[in-house]
Amino acid sequence: MSKQFQFKLVLLGESAVGKSSLVLRFVKDQFDDYRESTIGAAFLTQTVTLEHNTSVKFEIWDTAGQERYKSLAPMYYRNANCAVVVYDITQPASLEKARTWIRELQRQADPSIVIALCGNKGDLEARRQVSQEEAKKYADEEGLMWGETSAKSGDGVSDIFMAIAKKLPLTAPPPRAGASRNTPGRPAVDLNKQAAGDSNDPCAC
After folding, report:
1. Which NCBIfam families does this UniProt record tie to the protein (predicted)?
2. Taking a C-beta distance cutoff of 8 angstroms, is the pair 187, 202 a contact?
3. Alpha carbons 127 and 80: distance in angstroms, whole number
4. CATH code of the region 3-180
5. More exposed terminus of the chain, fewer Cβ within 10 Å: N or C?
6. Which of 50, 78, 51, 53 has its CA nearest to residue 63?
7. How far is CA 184 from each of CA 20, 62, 103, 113, 132, rounded to the nearest angstrom?
8. Measured between alpha carbons, how far is 147 from 54 in angstroms, rounded to an integer?
9. Residues whose CB falls within 8 Å of the CB of residue 53, separated by 6 or more in sequence, listed in order
């Protein structure tokens, strides 16, 4: 008998880091070089299939990165089960902004939220200014999942969402709106080192 779980996922990060492109690649397997900036937030859904006839439906809120929309963000990350905080590997300032978002999530989001730090635009390796070592070290220190993607080529995109799906608590319903649970810190997971379809996935906990 198949089981489906539904989770609210929010994308956060500075404007132009590729959040909308990341979601478009994940949901529709498409990429648009001239995608306009998101206004407020966009809503999409996508379902991924796990083992044992289990599936996870993501309700995805893709938030705008512009400063003028920042005050709206709590409406979208409040009661979120998981968050992908995106930075651009060619823009060091975008990683600093990602750190700010992560601190805000740690202070104000549900304590059980699963957070993944995502370095996007891996196709621009020649212009890289944020090293994998720096981002991974930060993720380790904060107990975050971490990986790099390219919305343009598709590399790593499904991996990061699949790893989040495996990390979510599928043994019980998602926490009720407004519910607060204290959970121990999670070990950081290097998504780039995970083998696809590994049944011993360290994300599953």
Report:
1. small_GTP (TIGR00231)
2. yes
3. 33
4. 3.40.50.300
5. N
6. 78
7. 31, 27, 17, 11, 26
8. 24
9. 1, 2, 3
Q: Which residue in the block uniquely carries the two structure tokens 């519910």?
A: 179
Cβ pair 84, 9 in contact under 8 A: yes
Our CA dihedral for 149, 43, 95, 83, rounded to 10 degrees, sits at: -90
Task: With 0.90 as the threshold, say if the pTM is over it.
Answer: no
Q: Tokens 């651009």 correspond to what residue? A: 88
Residue count of the chain: 205
CA distance 134 to 129: 10
